[in-house]
Amino acid sequence: MSLAGDFLRWWGAELAALVPVAVRRTLAPSRDRLVAVVSDGAATDATLVREIGGRRASLGPLSTLGARERRRLAAAARAGRLTVTLAPPPAAAVTRRVSLPLAAERDLEAVVGFEMDRLTPFPADALYWRCEIAARRPGQGALDADVVFVPRAPFAGVAAALADAGLPVVGAALPGPDGALLPLRGGAEAAQRRAPRWGARLAWLGAAASVALCAAWAGLALQTLEDRATALEEQALALRRAAVAAQDQRRAAEAADAARLALDLRARTPLAAEALAELSAILPDDAWLSALRLTEEAVEITGHAADAVALVALIDASPGFAAPRFLAPITREPGEAGERFTLTARRAGVGAPVTTP
Length: 357
Fold this sequence. Notes:
single chain, alpha+beta, Alpha-Beta Plaits, six-stranded mixed sheet, four-stranded antiparallel sheet, 12 helices, 13 strands, elongated, ATPase_NBD, coiled coil, General secretion pathway protein L, PilN, Extracell_DNA_Util/SecSys_Comp
């Protein structure tokens, strides 16, 4: 009976994974959390810390976790008893203060998420982010909010390794001033909250079909259950990977390149974050970047804009850059919404700009 018991426990965890997150949270409000602490954006490994009832216990690196412990954690995650949170290094975060209408306070996160393309060089679905009100100005009908964002692409390797272990990341967090983890938006739970109603209905239909299938298989010989369970587990894992890939396909390549460049620049110079934040502030709403290269002497950017020539005056007026110039002719390709440009500018306080061959 042990083989049948193992199968039924595994199949029960699979059925629980099909139940929407909100329903699982209602039925089982007390859940443990597994925090994957990443120390380097280029790494594919993370230190696992399990939080149980306010207590924290380190499980060590994911790469050295035993097979038995991995199966136990994966079963808890599928059943909704364990959530997996990614904790990127604080140095990967960029903070920007933005001004919004006072009415935005009623649904601040929705407003910031909708405006993320304008507030930062990245779309919202390419970031882990959070926002909070820094100041209110009722006399001006405005408020100031601090937006903290972390590009998701540099941590895709860690997220993939966790998913392969049956521990899909459902959220991210950064340590606050008191050491407690502050949640970031952009995880799988947020994506599920934005899913249309038919997604939940399909989940319920899938659960009902799975129950019927389980009942039909109850009469099979016990010696075949283990092989069939393994095959079903592989199929379910392949379907989950395909669903995640479909969600991230939109603008993934461009956002990943830009995010990796931003993190690499931050690792090579302490001024990279300030330069990135200043570019986010001075570029107009109709301009976006597809490549960025930053050295200690100069910055080189490539992208599209409705009026590329106007960028020279905007960058020259910025206190952080000087002597902007184009490195190639401005072009407009058929089907593109804007002019393609490549220009460089000297970092403020540095000598002559570096000549790019």
